[in-house]
């Protein structure tokens, strides 16, 4: 909700600024008229244009708890100016309030729809990967960590930056859980090195492809990693670690292909050209189509620029031709 309010305020700043400018101008005009009509009656609030403007401005923005706002309008024309100004005040506030409400409704709908779409995407990814821990509730890709130590089986999720198109290293304190609740922490060092193809991709969000290194320490036991190494499959690796020695696991991530059967767990085995393979093929075709659309768009923009330049040249030549014909006609008449 705070996000929606912030976006609404930001997109309404220009309208609010224009509204205050209009209020200031109307107040200045009304102040000049009130000073002209009311100053002969001896009211202190209208002895100068600035004082009269301040008096009417306080009433336009409903500001009462200030000094120098007291005063009465006594003349007929002064009452007419005041009534007209306050009527305009009501009209001025109608359009901005309606527009601000419209902006708020649009932003609220956008945030709610985005949240629902993100939740739907997460649910679908969780269903396809067959794991309850590959995607967090916020949509961040995670690796599933299961630790078998003296305290019993523990588990946790580690965010992995495989969607980044640059090298990333980070050290994390990962909270582990058992059936009863929090049950200890381990230190995890994450290093992600995207491939050259991913870094040079022209896509806005290139599919993950590169080398992921996970190091774990801080407890004695066996660590079992489950990492989404391809589009709809996981890869599992196990390593023994202790509080003094760092244990390292390396994963080759490639979401641009189906991956090998060795990189899938038993829940992600698929037959050739089943739904998963079809979705992978469709994803590749959509990427190729996006690249083709951008290429055609660029060609159309270049063609538009050339057509505009040719139209300018044609117009220049047309005017030159017209001047030449006019000059010939003038010479003919003189002859």
Give the helix/strand layout.
Elements: H1 2-38, H2 49-60, H3 76-129, E1 142-149, E2 152-159, E3 168-177, E4 182-194, H4 196-199, E5 209-217, E6 221-230, E7 233-241, E8 247-254, H5 275-334
Helix pairs in contact: 1-2, 1-3
Name the features.
alpha+beta; four-stranded antiparallel beta sheet; 22% strand
How many strand units? 8
Shape: flat
Number of separate helices: 5
Please write the string of helix (H) and strand (E) elements. HHHEEEEHEEEEH
Estimated helix fraction: 40-55%
Which residues form runs of ≥5 with pLDDT under 50?
128-133, 258-271
What portion of the residues fall into strands of 2 or more residues?
15-25%
Mean pLDDT: 77
| Rg for CA atoms | 35 Å
Which class best fits the helix and strand makeup?
A: alpha+beta
Quick overview:
The chain has 335 residues and is of the alpha+beta class. The protein has helices at 2-38, 49-60, 76-129, 196-199, 275-334; strands at 142-149, 152-159, 168-177, 182-194, 209-217, 221-230, 233-241, 247-254.
Structure description:
This protein has 335 residues and is an alpha+beta fold. It is built from 5 helices and 8 strands, in the order αααββββαββββα. A 4-stranded antiparallel sheet has the order 2-1-6-7, with no helix packed on it. A 4-stranded antiparallel sheet has the order 3-4-5-8. Helix 1 packs across helix 2 and helix 1 packs antiparallel against helix 3. The protein is flat, with a radius of gyration of 35 Å. The N and C termini lie far apart (84 Å). About 6% of the residues have low confidence.
